[in-house]
Amino acid sequence: MKTINIYIDNIVLNFQKIGGISVYITNIINRLIRDKSNLILIEQINVNSNILRNKLSIPDSIILKENKLPLRLLSYMPIKVKLSEKSLIHSSYYRICNNSLAANVITVYDFNYELGLVRHGIRKYLHCRQKKDAVERADGVICISESTKRDLLNLYPHVNPSKIKVVHLAASEDFFKIDSEHPVCNVVHHVDGIQTKKSILFVGARIFHKNFNVCVDTIAKLSDYELFIAGGSLTDDEIKMLDSKLPSRYHVFSNVTASDLNYLYNHAFCFFYPTSYEGFGIPVLEAMQAGCPVVSTKFSSIPEVAGGAGLLVDNISPDDFVEKILSLEVQSFRSQVINAGFEQAKKFSWDKTYQETIEFYQEVFNKKFGEVRSS
Predict the structure, then answer these.
(1) Using 50, 70 and 90 to split pLDDT, how confident is the model at 18?
(2) What is the pLDDT at residue 71?
(3) Which residues pair with 104 in a beta bridge?
(4) Has residue 291 got a pLDDT over 50?
(5) CA Rg, the chain, in Å?
(6) Structure-model confidence comparison of residues 291 and 2, the more confident one
(7) Reduced to 3 states, what is the DSSP secondary structure of residue 92?
(8) CA 181 to chain centre
(9) How far apart are the C-alpha atoms of 322 and 334, rounded to whole Å?
(10) Residues 6 or more apart in contact with residue 304 via CB below 8 angstroms
(11) Sheet holding 5-9: strands in order across?
(12) What pLDDT is stored for residue 191 in this prediction?
């Protein structure tokens, strides 16, 4: 795409040390640089605190520093950039450029705030208002799943569906089945030696809609299994709950690397994801790529990502989850689920995400300016 000037607004990298959106936007940037696109990155101070940003090799010549207003204020302000010719601007987090020479693209990840799954108060109000405004004013909207697109159109039925494109995410190549051809490496000591444990793995945040309490209640019914938790440190209330319901049957792995997490997926009996809502659900793909059976729900994007390879329940209840987990004790069925997971995971890749994204850039640019340019 050498003929289109592409600006990427990197503001989300200031909010995250690492995270799903950072993984997404840096994968797009990395490939745009690889393909020698006409790329400019709009960045703020302190962006180098982001782990993934630090791994990118970016020439100073393509970095445009934004003004030095406080980040929280800047994040709610329009993108201000001088354009000498028609360009496409893709914001990583719901900002719009008012320049008439700009074709605006945004990515919508989920509707946690709008659906009442996260905090209340002024920040929720500002976030929801900014997102709605961005969706309405953008020339093109990328949704990371069909589920997210449905949510968008339910919340904003006046938005023209023709400007929305579903582009699925992917999992990193850091997640794979460990075998003689793909040996384990760089695993730190605190996850080593777990092979003998019969573990069920829970990964990620433990906020309300992740249903961590249901996870604990489920494992409590499975006396032969232990719960492995990969994520942030436990709160006092979580420790109290775990000590009461799973005494000596849980282990916490905080600040794990990708290699650590891949090792955990490889040695877990299954990956347990009792979530009520996900914009996409990258851990589902990570687990399947690593040969770990997935037990989850039929809500939001999970069926879309897991396909027929996941063991999914209609009701978020310990008894329903127990039934799915125990079905994996039949080795022939477990092998079938693992193989189906490998095949399902092959449908997603960052190269595919990137290709569909740049095709959408071209489509949005052409619709905005009435020009057809070759890639």
Answers:
(1) confident
(2) 79
(3) 89
(4) yes
(5) 22
(6) 291
(7) coil
(8) 28
(9) 15
(10) 145, 146, 147
(11) 63-65, 38-43, 5-9, 87-91, 102-108, 140-143, 164-166
(12) 58
What is the 3-state secondary structure of 71-82? Answer: HHHHCCCCECCC
Range 189-345 classified under CATH 3.90.1150.10: no
For CATH 3.40.50.2000, list the domain ranges present in the chain: 5-169+350-369, 189-345
Average pLDDT over residues 88-93: 96
Which CATH code is given to the segment(s) 5-169+350-369?
3.40.50.2000
Which runs of E-coded beta strand occur in 10-163?
38-43, 63-65, 87-91, 102-108, 140-143
> Using one digit for the tens of pLDDT, what is the confidence trace for 139-190?
999 999 999 999 999 999 999 999 999 999 999 999 999 987 777 666 554 5
**174's tokens:** 């850091």
Instruction: Tell me the average pLDDT of the chain.
Output: 92
> Residue 291: which region, alpha, beta or left (left: phi > 0; alpha: psi -120 to 50)?
left
Q: Distance between CA 375 and CA 372 in Å, rounded? A: 10
